[in-house]
Automatic annotation (TrEMBL):
UniProt-listed SUPFAM superfamilies: P-loop containing nucleoside triphosphate hydrolases
Protein name as catalogued: Cytidylate kinase
Record-listed E.C. numbers: 2.7.4.25
Organism in which the protein naturally occurs: Streptomyces rhizosphaericola
Family from the record: Belongs to the cytidylate kinase family. Type 1 subfamily.
Catalytic activity: dCMP + ATP = dCDP + ADP; CMP + ATP = CDP + ADP
Top-level taxonomy: Bacteria, Bacillati, Actinomycetota, Actinomycetes, Kitasatosporales
Positions of ATP binding: G18, P19, S20, G21, T22, G23, K24, S25, S26
Ribonucleoprotein listed as a keyword: no
Length: 231
């Protein structure tokens, strides 16, 4: 499998990775909008394939069943940062992929190598087609999907900060339970065999615990602009 992604020479590819709640999606969308780049949420694609498996009677406790079905759903991602979209077999999946059921199963589905091969190819073809450049966010973008990205960022934050951010999104959610669920998902995502959540050696690590979202966005915009000027 080739990892090289060819884009126009002026097109910048930005890879943003990190655990849940570190600010990847909010930062990536804002940076892409500010710099006129496309935007790809790779977590949404893993959520979409998980949603399809759950809807189609696949036993998500069985890696063999998941592997056999992995190529069946047609997942399409819209990459406008001001209105990102995701469809599965032509159906809008943006709402249903965020349910608790999908969140609790997505690590198991995304650990299956056949799933990762298919989704990784899809991600590379989207990045290659983004003529003006793209911000791609996920867990393995800098290490596996786009190892030649022009700039790689790895966002971190304390589990407490991440849990507070996540439970702030859902009215009446239990902070301790959210924290435990986050830690469990991070452990599964970091511990899987195939392209685990990891910082690439050449990624810039940004700890967002004490930063506002605005500060993180400015930091990443500056890093991308410095890179563009140096190129
Ligand atoms: N630096 C920050 N400070 C406070 N809240 C933040 C910060 N970054 C992101 N958030 C909020 O935290 C939540 C999770 O952010 P999100 O971008 O979805 O993270 P991720 O994509 O890494 O899971 C969102 O509600 C977002 O607005
Ligand atoms: N590049 C990626 C992106 C996400 N995943 C998997 C692992 C994650 O727990 C799930 C969901 O990712 P998503 O970014 O939507 O998660 P959160 O926004 O942090 O809740 O998908 C992955 O394995 N590889």
């Amino acid at each position: 499998m080739s990892t090289a992604v060819e884009t126009a020479s002026s097109a910048v590819i930005v890879a943003i990775d990190g655990p849940s709640g570190t600010g990847k999606s909010s930062t990536s969308k804002a940076v892409a909008a500010k710099l006129g780049l496309s935007y790809l949420d790779t977590g949404a694609q893993y959520r979409a394939i998980t949603w399809w498996m759950l809807n189609n009677g696949i036993d998500v406790a069985s890696p063999a069943e998941i592997a056999t079905a992995a190529a069946k759903p047609v997942i399409v991602s819209g990459t406008d940062p001001s209105a990102p979209t995701i469809t599965v077999d032509g159906e809008d999946a943006s709402g249903p992929i965020r349910t608790q059921e999908v969140t609790s199963k997505v690590s198991a589905v995304s650990a299956v190598p056949e799933v990762r091969t298919i989704i990784t190819e899809l991600q590379r073809s989207i990045a290659a087609g983004a003529e003006g450049g793209i911000v791609v966010e996920g867990r393995d973008i800098g290490t596996t999907v786009l190892p030649d990205a022009d700039i790689k960022i790895f966002l971190t934050a304390s589990p407490e900060a991440r849990a507070a951010r996540r439970s702030g999104e859902v009215k009446g959610s239990d902070l301790a339970a959210t924290r435990e669920a986050l830690i469990r998902r991070d452990a599964a995502d970091s511990g899987r065999k195939t392209s685990p959540l990891a910082k690439a050696d050449d990624a810039v690590e940004v700890d967002t615990t004490e930063l506002t979202l605005q500060q993180v966005i400015e930091c990443v915009v500056t890093l991308v602009e410095e890179k563009r000027t140096a190129a």
